Amino acid sequence: MVKIRDLRKDFKKYNCTVECRYLDIETGNSFGIYGDTGSGKTLFTKIITGLAGNYSGSVEIGGTELKKLYRKKLGYVPFRNILYGNLTLKEMSVFLLKHYSIDPNEYKVKMDWFSEFWDIKRFDGYRISELTDGQLQSVKIFAGLIHSPSVLVIDEPFNGLGEENSVKFRDLFTDIGKRDVTVLAVSSNMSSLELITQRTSSISNGRIE
Amino acid sequence: MILNGLIKEFRIFFRNKTVLTTIIFILFIEIAVIIRSSSAVRMSEVSAVFYFKFFQQHLMIMFFPAVLANILMAAFSVTSEKQSSMLAKLLPKGECFMMRSKVFFCSILSAFMGISYMLTAVWASGLGIFPDHRFVIFLSASFLFMISGLSSFTVYFAFSRFGGSNDYEPKVRVMMIYMFIVSFIIMVFYFFISVSLKTYFDYVTGFRIDYPNVEFLLFLSSNFLFLIIARIMLNGGEKKLSEGLI
Question: What is the ipTM of this complex?
Fold first, then answer.
């Protein structure tokens, strides 16, 4: 469960203050935040994922304050690519699994599961830098889920994905919910958020309504 | 876990065509120098002076590939990571892991390139009869401290100064500052090692009776001090990265 109370953080560099007075997301549920460009969506995800510290108020994930939370519990799919472009999908995945102290053979299990929704196996030997936008977005989601996090934060979930793939990923997010993964998605596209989340809210000038 | 980091660094580093081409080019230069040196030694009259002269020259050249490995690491490996600084912040102990794996890889690569050159040069030119065990230990320790310190400094500098908001792309001015600092460190190192080598040469040729233990110890201590300072800077860099200040 994600529980936010009186959250406030000034981002002087971006001249934006992110505020969220009250937000509860039950375990296995999905929540979407809609907002225009520059409204503070990405900055909000940075607070929730622990990338931006020194905030006031409280953010609890599974009953533990975010500042004390073990990073393994969080999965983050940012808008930008943060995966190593020179590594292949398999190398990148094995690297992440080893870093999370998970058996590298788990890669195959995760691949099989993910392939039920999107044919990821054919990109096994592709370098990350060789992937198209849509393929990269799918791989980013795969990488964000590879260590079985309890909370997945995703920025622009359908970035680069076509309509057909969006439907496939809707099924993926439904399956994630069944596995007790809480999803928090932010996007500037309301229809895409409604496709994968149960509840939505909006953000404007950093303030979540 | 560190092996995982080294494998990743190896792949990132050697999959860059510029890096690979530069390293192959350096290997060719090294081979050419060794061939030239070995033929020159054979033609010269066999004396301690000649042996020492060649040995000293190879010792100085040995640092060139090691320093180059550091420059390549700063210019290509750190920058090629681009947005991965965010990944480091998401992984458990990621900041520490990311910086340390780069330092380890840079140290191993520098040592491999430098020591392999020196050993090949000594073997090919028949200079192996010259140094005694104490001298070899002194050289190995000073090289180890120097390379570890330089690698720590390189990674610290690259992470701290290569515009964090701009995907660690180094600006020309920053790169020039880095090159200037590295050149200064190497020049100071060369100056002091030359003093140590001269005292050793005096001992070998009989101009000095006692073994230059004090000179060696002073040189090693100053190298060790440099290593400690570089490690403190690296720790500071890790802390800044985890606090989001880099």
Answer: 0.85
